[in-house]
Amino acid sequence: MKVEDKNWFNVFKIALPLCISYIPIGLACGILLHSAGFNILFTGLLSIMVFSGGAQFLIASMLVIHAPLLQVLLMLFFLEMRYALLSASLSPFLKKEPVPFLIYFSSSMNDENYAINYLKFATDKKWNGHQAVMVNHFSLLFWTISNMVGSTVGNLIHFDVNLVNFTLTALFGYMLVMQIKNLLSILVASLSAILSVWLIIAMRSTMGLVVATLVSSFLGFLIEHGLEGRSNPLLLRSLRLRRRHEGFKDSPKETTDDHE
Fold it and tell me: For the whole prediction, is pTM greater than 0.90?
């Protein structure tokens, strides 16, 4: 077996657990997209261009309720902004790669293959950008095929479109629970929920969700930034405990404050 052949097969074995996990979620996403009006070709095209389960579930849900295109794009923009941070954390490992390669790499990156690549870059000195791209493409291949098969299955079974809203709510509810690690995140989430309801009623549009998200995130940033350097309030203590749990070290001053 050639070295190149062995290389792609080894990368495939690394990506295989992720690829298998995409099959049931991809099938469900394809069925939802079919219910929202996408045929098999458009489902495949959307899967390649977006390659984000949360974003595709969001698209299906908002199209079912006939949301304006601008609103859909804005929601997708804010939802996918996290990839800027994920990409930045990979940049030290890819700084020798040319810009066209970086564009090529980033076009097929998502949360899950990012986790695999970051772990391999951090623990395997032989891991390189071309192997990372293969992980991206294997996961993209399985995701796209699963979506297209799901769209085909959607032609054969009846699916209640009203369930799309519940599916999206459950998805983002799970994402919210996974993000709650301190008191500040609970306060920001509660503020966002209250603002969302109030702004939707006041604006008579779901654009209130976008405004509530921006306002709550900005206020949360200001609160966290303002608490830095203060003496041991409950919010700051929860933030410090989170950082310690994630492997960060507090400054000597902060450690002293914690014992007071």
Answer: no
